[in-house]
Amino acid sequence: MTDLTNDETMVTAAETAMSKLAAVREELGKVIFGQRQVVDETLISVLAGGHALLVGVPGLAKTRLAQSLGTVLGLSEKRVQFTPDLMPSDILGSEILDEDEQGRRSFRFVRGPIFCQLLMADEINRASPRTQAALLQAMQERFVTIAGQTHPLPTPFHVLATQNPIEQEGTYPLPEAQLDRFLLQVNIDYPDEEAERRMMIATTSGQETSPVTALDAESLIAIQALVRRMPVGQKLVDTILALVRAGRPQLKIVSDLENLIAWGPGPRASQALMLAVRVRALIDGRLAPSIEDVKALAAPVLRHRMATTFGARAEGISIDMIIERLCRHVIG
Fold first, then answer.
1. Which positions fall inside the ChlI/MoxR AAA lid domain (predicted)?
2. Measured in Å, how far apart are the chain's first and last C-alpha atoms?
3. CATH number of the domain residue 126 falls in
4. Within a domain: 119
5. Is 185 inside a domain boundary?
6. Model confidence band, residue 29 (pLDDT cutoffs 50, 70, 90)
7. pLDDT at residue 3 above 50?
């Protein structure tokens, strides 16, 4: 791993990373139309060493984004379609009884699809809580335990999980404590007219562009290490801490929001925001994050770590609206 203990070495490593990330964004832009913010937020999750929850209606290229990201980053990727009858062993793997030519029997561990570097968990809220918990535990601990034996997951290891926000029949919503395992919740909206036009022509002409590999696992790990060493000013640290704490109703920091927030973000939110703003600065070609990075990433970091009260929902106040008001109060 590169030594980043002095400023000159760090600047050189950062400039190299910026060049590689520019190529990554260019390749992803060839296949994902009109979703620059979505691509960047998903990329931020991976570069920060975390997992992302992609929320959007069907047909908005969530699966294509995950597959393209695996190709461009040079990661082994697999996809699992979550269904109510999916068992933990279908994801993690299981032990089977083998018998050799001499009749001797022994157990052999057969790895599940989770043993990859980028796993797409499609419609994660359709699986049972037991299966969800098995996946989310592996996401946190980076290993699985079967029959008392521990099996480490590949490095790096990232999960991109998807949810459909409009079709909720027969689903099992993720508990709040498990949602916290995702670094960002990336909301995907419909593309604008010009992007949809390009998408329609590109996908029906029989001449679709395929992305090429622009990074590899070793380089990704090096960038993730670089991100954690990027400098963050004291003012920015104070702003992140103030913003996260302002979202906790029991602290009564923002008085007019107390009755609108049911529960607020925990310490993982400030950790996630610290990492995410550094990555955003890096992919934008900057060596240090700014207040604008905090504003841009407040919603994807906080929206799945907070909940509105019944009164707020009755008034039509969404969690993103509350986060916007928190930003105005703390940042201005």
1. 260-324
2. 40
3. 3.40.50.300
4. yes
5. yes
6. confident
7. no
Q: Which of 303, 12, 83 is nearest to 185 (CA)?
A: 303
220 and 235 belong to one structural domain: no
Q: Does residue 154 have a pLDDT over 50?
A: yes
Do 248 and 265 lie in one domain? The reply is yes
Please indicate, yes or no, if residue 242 is contained in any of the structural domains: yes
Question: What CATH number has the domain bearing residue 237?
Answer: 1.10.8.80
pLDDT tens column, 304-323: 999 999 999 999 999 999 99
Residue 94 located in a structural domain = no
